[in-house]
Amino acid sequence: MVLIVAFSAVIPLMTVVNYSVQDILDFNTRFFVGFDWYRETLNDPRFIDAFWRQIGFSLTVIAIEIPLGIMVAKGIPKASRYTPLILILLALPLLIPWNVVATIWQMFARPDIGLLGVSINALGIDYNYTASPIQAWLTIVAMDVWHWTSLVALLSFAGLSAIPGPFYQAAELDGAGKWQVFRLIELPRLRGVLVIAVLLRLMDSFMIYTEPFVLTGGGPGNATTFLSQYLTTMAVGQFDLGPAAAFSVIYFLFILLFCWLFYTSVISRDET
Amino acid sequence: MKRSLMKHSAVKHSMSRWVLVGYGIYLAVPLYWLLSMAMRTNADIAGDFSFFPSAPTFSNFVEIFSNPVWYQAFGNSLTYVAINTVLSLLVAIPAAYSFSRYRFLGDKQLFFWLLTNRMAPPAVFLLPFFQLYSAIGLFDTPLAVALAHCLFTVPLSVWILEGFFSAVPKELDEMARIDGHSFLYFFFRIFIPVNRGAIGVTLFFCFMFSWVELLLARTLSGAESKPIVVVMTRTISASGIDWGVLAAAGVLTVLPGILVVWFVRKDLVKGFALGRVS
Lengths: 272, 278
Hints:
Chain A has a two-stranded antiparallel sheet. Chain A has one domain: MetI-like (MetI-like fold, Orthogonal Bundle), CATH 1.10.3720. Chain A is an all-alpha fold. Chain A is globular, with a radius of gyration of 23 Å. In chain A, α3 packs across α7, α3 (45-75) runs antiparallel to α9 (178-206) and α9 (178-206) packs antiparallel against α12. In chain A, a hairpin with a 5-residue loop joins β1 and β2 (30-32). Chain A contains 12 helices and 2 strands, in the order αββααααααααααα. Chain A has helices spanning 2-20, 36-43, 45-75, 83-95, 98-108, 115-122, 133-161, 165-173, 178-206, 210-215, 227-237, 241-271, and strands spanning 22-24, 30-32. By secondary structure, chain B is mostly helical. A two-stranded antiparallel sheet of chain B has the order 1-2. In chain B, a hairpin with a 2-residue loop joins β1 (236-237) and β2. The longest helix of chain B has 37 residues, at 2-38. The two termini of chain B are 38 Å apart. The model of chain B is unreliable at 1-11 and 273-278 (pLDDT under 50). The interface between A and B is large, with 86 and 89 residues.
């Protein structure tokens, strides 16, 4: 077990940490620079921009996908002939490889030949996601909601199904309204699946790469350049291994920090 | 009182039903566009806008089925995804059970740490996996990809299952013990059937994440075991993207997943009734 962890997690991470404190000219010429790269990264205005853009994006998609997913899950009938069909429809976006998801939306939103783009323009709104930063951002949010709300919905649906019937009957006898049933019975029982759903969306939206890369390429300008893409430009495009490694360490620590904050806040509320 | 309650609940009910219908349409429209692209030629796709394909064609599908690379890749993907799903569940079910039932030093930290494997960019793991598997002769086998994917499917499964397992009252365990059942009998005959829905949904998510993962699968497979997601990237060539074939392949890649959902559909809707223990 320790060996597996060492080989799969610790050693690669250490390599990155090692790079992050050196100035690498080529693989044989390197200088120890200490925390310079960290200081530089944290003061880099483009990093800070990408960081806030990233936070805004992650919060937006979580704020939409979690409530919407719960609502959708509550709408799925439990014992209907259509239930399997609904579940399959929900599962479909998840099963499509991510580059294809982005390609679908790229074509779908094209203002000249895509269904979405043509429809919006037909409504009289001037829509072109390759030219307007706001529209590019909204298109990516719409794509992410399309792609990932099903994850929340399927998890919540399984969670709701696992609530024993007597719980509802008892609530009905007590005269509890729908909102109270949701607040006092369903929500606590969904806690487990919702925690993992929020954490998954937090991590994955923070590391989102393929979809914006294919859809908008980070543009127009830098409007949809999220952290991972800026990092890739740095590491592969400019071959700045040192700063890129410092960037990845900071990046990883931020994801870790946000997830940990969320997890401990849920746990501590549990114990009080 | 009772009547107004029922009326109220009917209203609420229909609201979430409308959300479902609305969201279903939102899901279906881009999916229709995928299907419609799959049935057009590239010239038709890039030509004028039309809601229906002007000349529906199956040529994109024919191209996929006539090329052995495609269906071998399909088989390769299915093999490692199946191995991964079975392995993940075998490891995760006992692990999630102990996390849900026992308190031990650092259990919360260990539980959280499991998930941190998924927080690091996967690119970080590429080189060490590659070196390790090459050294022990696993490189370019389905097993290599399956094991590498366990890095994120196992933590994910443990987390999902633990959420469900800890909602099962501990009285269930105790009642089984009082009834004189052995632990193994309890675990396999009572606990697992009670949690069928949880295992069903976990199985689906293992399958799904392993199926669409590209980076590790591409690095750990050579010519022998090319997975479908890697072959799909080949449709992007110097002459641009072959939209039609890419869309057709996209349509085909969802089929195994549909089968998985179909197999677990009954488990997903099955809640558990307490009191059916003995």
